[in-house]
Amino acid sequence: MKFAYMDAVIHASLRVHPNTGLVLERVVPKEGTTIDGYALPGGTIVGVNTWVIHRNKAIFGDDVDVFRPERWLEASDERLIVMKRNLFSFGAGPRMCIGRNIAMMQIGKFMVEFYRNFNATFTHPEEDWHVSGGW
């Protein structure tokens, strides 16, 4: 059985509040490369910050600052591929976290069991929710 909305909530959560806070660095190969029109010599360290890429409007839409799981359900198949390819919560490419699949399974199982067994509510729903993160 698939839980499409729960899957969308998990992806939206990982996008809005990714678990990596540092730049994911890579070293340009010795022959060099071109990235976004810039020629880079071999040995140059390049990287992307997950929080920045997850707020890219060209990838995730104009409402990137909004937690909206529906974006994952409304996206075309092509758009969904682009969004998932740019969800860097577990890194990307050959250096992607090897525990990604088991972590995603555990997140899904935890959410189902948590809401099956508990009725979660905010203690003070009238107050704004403030999130602080650190690394």
From TrEMBL:
GO terms for molecular function: heme binding; iron ion binding; monooxygenase activity; oxidoreductase activity, acting on paired donors, with incorporation or reduction of molecular oxygen. Keywords: Heme, Iron, Metal-binding, Monooxygenase, Oxidoreductase. Its cofactor is heme. It comes from the Eukaryota. Pfam families: p450. Heme binds at residue 97. Coiled coil: none annotated. InterPro entries: Cyt_P450 (IPR001128), Cyt_P450_CS (IPR017972), Cyt_P450_E_grp-IV (IPR002403), Cyt_P450_sf (IPR036396), Cytochrome_P450_monoxygenase (IPR050121). Gene3D superfamilies: Cytochrome P450. Belongs to the cytochrome P450 family. This is Pisatin demethylase. The gene is PDAT9_2.
